[in-house]
């Protein structure tokens, strides 16, 4: 009895933290760890994958920090297993079990390479020019950047290289910038510069040839969204060019790996606020070809530039997929009292990869996108997954009349790819249904924000009859 009273009064459960290895090592094996800290009494056990792993484990004795203890366990595995297999550590203390998922989710970063800014090129007395390599959306943050000139590594003894520390943005994803300063004369002497990133997700490379970007032209390629693939049953690919000095002189071509040229349509150019033009080229492939990882190449040529812009895209891998957990919440009592508008909230959590669709319907009629707001997916390190929130506001009379409202979530890891939650005023509790959905209205809206030499925001609006692009120069805005 006295022991039970002591436990009730003084015992403290541990905080558990999974520890990842540092990247950059070329070794074939790596070590990961599990840390349990701030607990009492001293007796505690740490297991890997619920005890299924017995080899390669080193358990360290508890260390006292005042009245509390800290323990750790180290597991040595092969580098390939760390990249491809899930791991978890389980801590048992008194009658409590704490498990931390070590599912290895490694996010491949996007990478953009920019030549000297147009204003920098105008500075005749400036003997140096700056190339910028932007790496965004990486996790974990450990990454190594290398610059090359004509495929030869550039040392910091020769040219100045400045790498920022990876910084958190968009939840728990990381972003960083690497800058290379070169002599001005090198920019016009047929040098081929490239930026290479070495990350757990693999190696990425971007190339820029002598003065290919002297006009400040930027080209990006986008794959289909999850809404395209699951709802609209199409697989469009989009090539975006911005900061064009003229509305003419450009030409797009599309190639499919192993299949030759692809048919495409090119939108009319749009005039930006800074006097430059933007234009988009769109081609369609099959969902089956996209899912198989086929590579697609968009090439842009422009009058006065000898080398073309070449962008390649393919579907990434989808290891460790996790379906979303969907919760639908009714309006608050305060909103009901106001008798004006009420808000439904739909939250999808614990999903991976990031691509997800959220839509709403009322009495089985689709609700237009303009009537609800979806947040951007946010990365949660703790669960190695994403979450997203959607809010729908409807007139109080609709709630009063007991109209059923449904939140529809689409994700590749779900059975039938869709799940639907429905709620009405009478029940006040959502019901769950897995659905096979087809929506004929392909009203599509999404936003792509790029950090260019000058920032440019690209908004795509596409419907079943027509599509157009609106561009807004954001050079003087801060995000």
Q: Report the sheet-strand fraction.
A: over 45%
Overall 3D shape: globular
- CATH-level-4 superfamily name of the largest domain: Immunoglobulins
Q: Total strand count, please? A: 38
Keywords:
immunoglobulin domain; five-stranded antiparallel sheet; 7 helices; Ig-like domain-containing protein; mainly beta; Immunoglobulin-like; 479 residues; 4 domains; Ig-like_dom_sf; globular; Immune_Resp_Modulators
Blueprint of the fold:
Blueprint: H1 2-10, E1 15-19, E2 29-39, E3 45-48, E4 57-65, E5 68-78, H2 79-84, E6 88-93, E7 96-101, E8 110-114, H3 118-121, E9 128-138, E10 144-149, E11 152-153, E12 160-163, E13 167-169, E14 173-183, E15 192-199, E16 202-209, E17 218-222, H4 226-231, E18 235-244, E19 250-256, E20 260-261, E21 264-266, E22 270-271, E23 277-285, H5 287-291, E24 296-302, E25 309-313, E26 325-329, H6 333-338, E27 341-351, E28 357-362, E29 365-366, E30 372-374, E31 378-380, E32 385-395, H7 396-400, E33 405-410, E34 418-423, E35 431-434, E36 444-450, E37 456-462, E38 467-473
Antiparallel strand pairs: 1-2, 2-5, 3-6, 4-5, 6-7, 8-9, 9-14, 10-11, 10-15, 12-14, 13-14, 15-16, 17-18, 18-23, 19-20, 19-24, 21-23, 22-23, 24-25, 26-27, 27-32, 28-29, 28-33, 30-32, 31-32, 33-34, 34-35, 36-37, 37-38
Description:
The protein folds into four domains: 12-101, Immunoglobulin-like (Sandwich); 105-214, Immunoglobulin-like, CATH 2.60.40; 217-316 and 467-479, Immunoglobulins (Immunoglobulin-like, Sandwich), CATH 2.60.40.10; 325-434, Immunoglobulin-like (Sandwich), CATH 2.60.40. The chain is mostly beta strands and 479 residues long. The strands form nine sheets. Strands 8, 9, 12, 13 and 14 form a five-stranded antiparallel β-sheet that branches. The chain is built from seven helices and 38 strands. A hairpin with a 7-residue loop joins strand 33 (405-410) and strand 34. It is globular. The chain starts with a helix and ends in a 6-residue tail after the last strand.
């Amino acid at each position: 009895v006295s022991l039970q009273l002591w436990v009730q009064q003084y015992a403290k459960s541990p905080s558990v933290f999974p520890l990842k290895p540092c990247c950059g090592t070329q070794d074939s094996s790596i070590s990961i760890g599990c840390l349990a800290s701030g607990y009492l009494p001293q007796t505690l056990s740490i297991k890997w994958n619920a005890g299924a792993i017995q080899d390669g484990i080193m358990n360290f004795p508890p260390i006292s920090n005042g009245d509390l203890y800290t323990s750790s366990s180290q597991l040595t595995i092969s580098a390939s297993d760390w990249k491809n297999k899930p791991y978890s550590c389980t801590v048992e203390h008194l009658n409590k079990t704490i498990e931390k998922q070590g599912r290895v989710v490694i996010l491949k970063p996007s990478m953009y390479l920019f030549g000297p800014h147009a204003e920098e090129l105008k500075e005749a007395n400036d003997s140096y020019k700056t190339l910028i390599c932007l790496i965004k959306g990486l996790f974990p943050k450990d990454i190594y950047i290398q610059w090359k000139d004509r495929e030869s590594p550039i040392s910091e003894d020769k040219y100045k290289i400045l790498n920022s520390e990876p910084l958190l943005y968009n939840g728990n994803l990381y972003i960083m910038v690497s800058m290379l300063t070169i002599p001005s004369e090198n920019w016009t002497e047929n040098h081929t510069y490239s930026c290479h990133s070495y990350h757990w997700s693999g190696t990425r490379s971007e190339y820029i040839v002598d003065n290919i970007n002297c006009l400040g032209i930027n080209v990006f390629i986008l794959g289909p969204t999850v809404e395209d693939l699951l709802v609209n049953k199409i697989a469009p690919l989009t090539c975006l060019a911005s900061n064009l000095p003229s509305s003419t002189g450009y030409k797009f071509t599309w190639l499919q790996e192993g299949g030759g040229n692809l048919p495409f349509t090119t939108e009319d150019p749009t005039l930006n606020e800074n006097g430059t033009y933007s234009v988009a080229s769109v081609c369609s492939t099959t969902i089956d070809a996209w899912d198989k990882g086929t590579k697609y190449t968009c090439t842009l040529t422009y009058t006065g530039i000898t080398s073309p812009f070449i962008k390649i895209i393919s579907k990434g891998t989808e290891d460790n997929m996790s379906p979303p957990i969907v919760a639908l919440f009714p309006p608050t009592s305060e909103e009901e009292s106001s008798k004006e508008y009420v808000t439904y909230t739909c939250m999808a959590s614990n999903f991976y990869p990031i691509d997800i669709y959220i839509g709403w319907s009322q009495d089985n009629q689709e609700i237009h996108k303009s009537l609800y707001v979806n947040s951007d997916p946010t990365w949660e390190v703790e669960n190695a997954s994403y979450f997203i929130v959607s809010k729908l506001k409807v007139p109080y009379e609709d709630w009063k009349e007991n109209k059923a409202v449904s939140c529809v979530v689409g994700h590749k890891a779900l059975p039938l790819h869709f799940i639907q939650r429905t709620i009405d005023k009478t029940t006040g509790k959502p019901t769950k249904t897995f659905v096979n959905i087809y929506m004929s209205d392909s009203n599509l809206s999404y936003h792509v924000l790029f950090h260019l030499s000058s920032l440019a925001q690209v908004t795509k609006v596409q419907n079943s009859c027509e599509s157009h692009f609106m561009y807004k120069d954001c050079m003087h805005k801060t995000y």
